[in-house]
Amino acid sequence: MKSFRLLLVPAISVLCAAQVAAPVRSSASVRWEAWSAMRSAATAIVGWKIGVRAEDFRQLSFYDAGAQIDLQGVGYFEGFSTQKFNEEIPKNVDYNLQPGEIAAVKDRRTALSLVMTAYRVPAVGPDEETARKLFGFAKALGVETIVSDRMPDSPAAIDKIA
After folding, report:
1. Is 67's pLDDT higher than 90?
2. Greater confidence, 125 or 65?
3. 28 to each of 45, 112, 158, how far by Cα in Å?
4. How far is CA 6 from CA 69, 74, 85, 161, 162, in A?
């Protein structure tokens, strides 16, 4: 079973992990090859994941922000729960999405060769059921780290779920 890390920080700009492979470029990606720029080669060289916060493109949908992140030349990003997916699916990118809508999020991410290594939420949830939905959603998207702006009411319960 995959475990998650919960970070309580105001912003995240460099995501670190050991021995991880850089995302492979797909058809919609305009990013250079990973070895051609230090910001994208850092993963292969030292294991760091250098990414962009999708929240920095909050005026854009998730769909359009992904294209802008790809243009920045990085393959990793931090998603956030209050961003709309696109005009066709005008819902927040959160655990309320239906399976087909989650597949659309994954398809867009795959088309751009992006990896959502972190996912930001205002709070993990007021109860265990909400927290389980959040962690299940993050797992479905392959998220490694959930970033919360507020300390959970019961860190022990969150630890059990993670």
Report:
1. yes
2. 65
3. 25, 5, 37
4. 23, 23, 24, 11, 8
> Do the strands 48-53 and 76-80 form a parallel or antiparallel pair, or are they unpaired?
parallel
Tokens linked to 87: 């005009």
Query: How far is residue 142's CA from residue 68's CA, in Å, rounded to a whole number?
Result: 21
> Whose CA is closest to 6, among 106, 116, 95, 119?
119
Q: Which residue has the higher pLDDT, 34 or 122?
A: 122
Cα 62 to Cα 161: distance, rounded to the nearest angstrom: 27
Nearest Cα neighbor of 58 from 82, 88, 93 is 82
Q: 161 or 136, which is more confident? A: 136
Task: Tell me the longest C-alpha to C-alpha distance in the chain.
Answer: 46
Token couple for 9: 């920080």
**What pTM, to 2 d.p., does this model score?**
0.73
